[in-house]
Amino acid sequence: MGCVQIAIVAAFSSKGASFFSADPSSTCPPFYPFVATIELTDTQSEAKIQERTSDLSLYGCRVETRTPFPTGAKVRIRIAHRSANFVALGKVSYTTTEGGMGIAFTQIEPNDQLNLEKWVEELRDH
Fold first, then answer.
1. Calpha distance 119→66 (Å, rounded)
2. 112 to each of 34, 109, 117, how far by Cα in Å?
3. Which of 20, 69, 87, 103 yields a CA-CA distance of 20 to 30 A from 78?
4. At residue 91, what are phi and psi to the nearest 5 degrees?
């Protein structure tokens, strides 16, 4: 399990901006509370859901949903926040019985990466 996947599980399990890694020498970015509209599309079935995020990092996010996609599902991601959009590809890292799932970003275009970095920087500064 990579740093990103471990960080997602740890951050969302604790409901905070904490993280850990199986490799103490590696560093993983923290997750920050972040509420925004997210649209996820399963790339295999083309099933779509529109929900809300609850946390965000440079490498993934947590989505609150009663109908999570299965762990391992590949998804197209669109997050709308204020006047900006973020589009990426990702993978469902985990689902919870409380009604959520963790998404690891797997492919981000440069302009979308800039939007993501701006959002995380704003969250970090608050």
1. 26
2. 17, 5, 9
3. 20
4. -140, 140
DSSP secondary structure, 73-113, as one string: -EEEEEEEETTEEEEEEEEEEEEETTTEEEEEEEEE-HHHH
Picking from 51, 62, 52, the residue whose alpha carbon sits closest to that of residue 104 is 62
**Which class for 27: exposed (0-12), middle (13-18), buried (19 or more C-beta within 10 A)?**
exposed
Asked whether the predicted pLDDT for residue 49 surpasses 50, the reply is yes
- pLDDT for 1-47, tens place per residue? 334 444 444 444 333 333 333 333 345 668 999 999 999 999 999 99
Residue 3 CA neighbour count, 13 Å, CB half: 11
Nearest to 74 by CA among 62, 60, 91: 91
State the Cα–Cα distance between residues 88 and 66, nearest whole angstrom.
22
CB atoms within 10 A of CB 59: 23
pTM: 0.78
